[in-house]
Design a protein that fits this description.
With 223 residues, this protein is α/β, with parallel strands linked by helices. The protein is built from 6 helices and 8 strands; from the N terminus they run βββαβαβαββαβαα. The protein has an 8-stranded mixed β-sheet with strand order 2-1-4-3-5-6-7-8, sandwiched between helices.
């Protein structure tokens, strides 16, 4: 089974669980609906690595964090979102499980990827807007497999370095956003290789990105 890490900020506790795809039920300290940040790790990492990158900044805002681990039981090898050919529906289902258990603001669910996680997001870009309000592409990214434009807003924040050997793919993903008139922020770290792209996500930068995300809610359909 998959491994996940869920940080329940509103209840002021941190939960970690292995070998399960179900969140643990915990009574929340508040009924206020809060944003949810969903993070996908890089190659040869696990959910705890991506949690560490974002935990403090998310906790400081009183938001919730869901760190997903690329599912080995569904064919993900070496923790590589980049190489996994799995259906994005698996990601959406994990997120919806959390929304059924916790008071999540459905207009502010954000998808963040580092390295291979960012590349998986880019490959399947058309799959995300029905649930996610915006995305963060950190040190990775490729244009989507299909080149049709999204039919709703899906802003992207890029944090990338121009000395990453795969930087050209990130540029092509940005070009897709621009061609399709989608809002994007191009936060380039000049001279940064992959390690320096990672280091660029300081506490201050993480908070800056979360502030940007907070101003990009998804419009919810009304009945």
């Amino acid at each position: 089974m998959s491994r996940w890490v869920l940080v329940l900020i509103c209840a002021a506790v941190t939960l970690r669980a292995a070998d399960t795809a179900r969140p643990v039920r915990v009574a929340s300290a508040t009924i206020e609906r809060v944003p949810l940040v969903v993070v996908l790790h890089g190659d040869r990492e696990d959910a705890e690595d991506s949690e560490r990158r974002w935990r403090d900044a998310v906790e400081a805002r009183g938001w919730e964090l869901l760190a997903l681990e690329c599912p080995k039981d569904l064919g993900c090898r070496g923790g590589s979102w980049y190489r996994w050919d799995g259906d994005p529906e698996w990601v959406r289902e994990r997120v919806l499980e959390v929304t059924r258990e916790q008071p999540i603001d459905m207009s502010r669910i954000f998808l963040v990827g580092w390295s291979g996680g960012a590349t998986y997001i880019g490959k399947h870009l058309q799959s995300w807007p029905p649930l996610f309000a915006a995305t963060v592409i950190h040190g990775g990214g490729v244009p989507p497999v299909a080149d049709d434009c999204l039919d709703q807003p899906f802003p992207a924040y890029f944090l990338v370095g121009d000395k990453n050997p795969a930087h050209g793919a990130a540029k092509r993903l940005r070009a897709y956003f621009e061609t399709c008139d989608q809002e994007n922020v191009w936060d380039l770290v000049p001279g940064a290789n992959h390690a320096k792209e990672d280091a660029a996500l300081t506490a201050e930068k993480a908070d800056e990105i979360l502030s940007w995300l907070a101003h990009h809610p998804r419009a919810l359909e009304t009945s």
